[in-house]
Design brief:
CATH class: Mainly Beta
Bound molecules: 2-oxoglutaric acid, fe (ii) ion
Strand content: 15-25%
Distance between the termini: 61 Å
Protein name: Gibberellin 2-beta-dioxygenase 4
Low-confidence stretches: none
Shape: globular
Number of strands: 15
Pfam family, one: 2OG-FeII_Oxy
Family: Belongs to the iron/ascorbate-dependent oxidoreductase family.
CATH topology: Jelly Rolls
CATH architecture: Sandwich
Number of helices: 10
Helix content: 25-40%
Structural class: alpha+beta
Number of domains: 1
Mean pLDDT: 90
Radius of gyration: 20 Å
Keywords: Iron, Metal-binding, Oxidoreductase
GO molecular function: 2-oxoglutarate-dependent dioxygenase activity; metal ion binding
Strand order of the largest sheet: 2-3-11-8-13-6-5-4
């Protein structure tokens, strides 16, 4: 029995998802930025290779995640509950969504990590200094990668958008609300939903896994493309709702999920790049390439949108975004 999958779904195993080689941006920046913008418009998803995140930084974080998830459940629970930060098991979010996943959700601000390890009632690691160094090193490196990608996106979008530093400024801000999520999907001998379909609410997600498959993205309703693990240590990049709104829906935020059907455990690490809670998100409809000349959304703060995501089920993406849509202009009354 396939748990939680609809029968009428199509799986496109043969589909080639875009792969961006960031090394090529050194010799031809403009071509790379156009490639990235095209991927954000068509899929809201691409992989990056030659990304420059040092191997030892990745390995150190993966080892700490491995140590944490290998502990007995009762010990892991001492780092919970995820309200929203901390350890969670099967329960995703606050609205009853369930998946075959364990996770550790961390705010990326170094002060938060330090206080979580030393002053809070949540116990994560016996060697909290190693854990702290691994998280801080990893977060710094992936934030740089997120900024590089956002800079290229800004350049590719062209002059009608705010300078590309606008996007990166939101992420580099000391008050930015970026989050790191470590996921662990236990092995299983049937097919199970690890993480139900959703879009990521933030600006951009940088995701990597231990090479065990399971991630799928949706190209259209009911059509899913399995994301094959990449031999060159790629990062997957998801466009989140905030970037979709900021580009007035020129970009799509990618619908994705994890379906587990492996005898091996899947581990993934997702860095969610988000603005400060009080930053205003405004949609830009002035670009000549924008298919939508009028702003689709009213301005709102990231804090307001984050709150809306907490009050909706994981898959209720349309409902939570609709809440921020401009009211439709009333239809003109027929003349007598
Ligand atoms: O584990 C994965 O590959 C995806 C996880 C994910 O979508 C998330 O944490 O938002
Ligand atoms: Fe996600």
């Amino acid at each position: 029995m396939v748990v939680g999958l609809r029968m009428e779904e199509k799986i496109r195993d043969d589909f080639q998802l875009p792969i961006i080689d960031l090394l090529s941006s050194k010799s031809n920046r403009s071509a790379t930025s156009k490639q990235i913008v095209k991927a954000c418009e068509e899929y809201g998803f691409f992989k990056v290779i030659n990304h420059g995140v040092p191997h030892h930084i990745i390995t150190q974080m993966e080892e700490e995640a491995h140590k944490f998830f290998s502990k007995p459940l009762s010990e892991k629970q001492r780092a919970g509950p995820a309200n929203p930060y901390g350890y969670g098991c099967k329960n995703i979010g606050l609205k009853g969504d369930m998946g075959e996943v364990e996770y550790l959700l961390l705010q990326t601000n170094p002060h938060f990590i330090t206080s979580l390890l030393h002053n809070s009632n949540k116990y994560i690691s016996q060697d909290s200094n190693n854990f702290r160094c691994a998280v801080i090193g990893y977060v710094e490196a992936v934030r740089e990668l997120a900024c590089e990608v956002l800079d290229l996106i800004g350049e590719g979008l062209g002059g009608a958008y705010p300078p590309s530093s606008h996007f990166t400024g939101l992420i580099r801000d000391v008050e930015s609300d970026c989050v790191l999520r470590l996921n662990h999907y236990p092995p299983c001998d049937d097919v199970r939903i690890g993480f139900g379909e959703h879009t990521d609410p933030q600006m951009l997600t940088l995701l990597r896994s231990n090479g065990v498959e399971g991630l799928e993205i949706s190209l259209e309703e009911g059509v899913w493309v399995p994301v094959k693990p990449h031999p060159e240590s790629a990062f997957c990049v998801n466009v989140g709702d905030v970037l979709k709104v900021m580009t007035n829906e020129r970009f799509v935020s990618v619908k994705h999920r994890v379906v587990m059907k492996s005898y091996k455990a899947r581990r993934s690490m997702a860095y969610f790049a988000a603005p400060p809670l009080d930053a205003t998100i405004t949609c830009n409809s002035h670009s000549h390439n924008n298919p939508n000349p009028n702003p689709i959304y009213r301005s709102f703060t990231w804090g307001e949108y984050k709150k809306a995501t907490y009050s909706c089920r994981l898959g209720d993406v349309t409902a939570r975004l609709n809440h921020f849509k401009m009211p439709l202009s009333p239809l003109p009354l027929p003349e007598d």
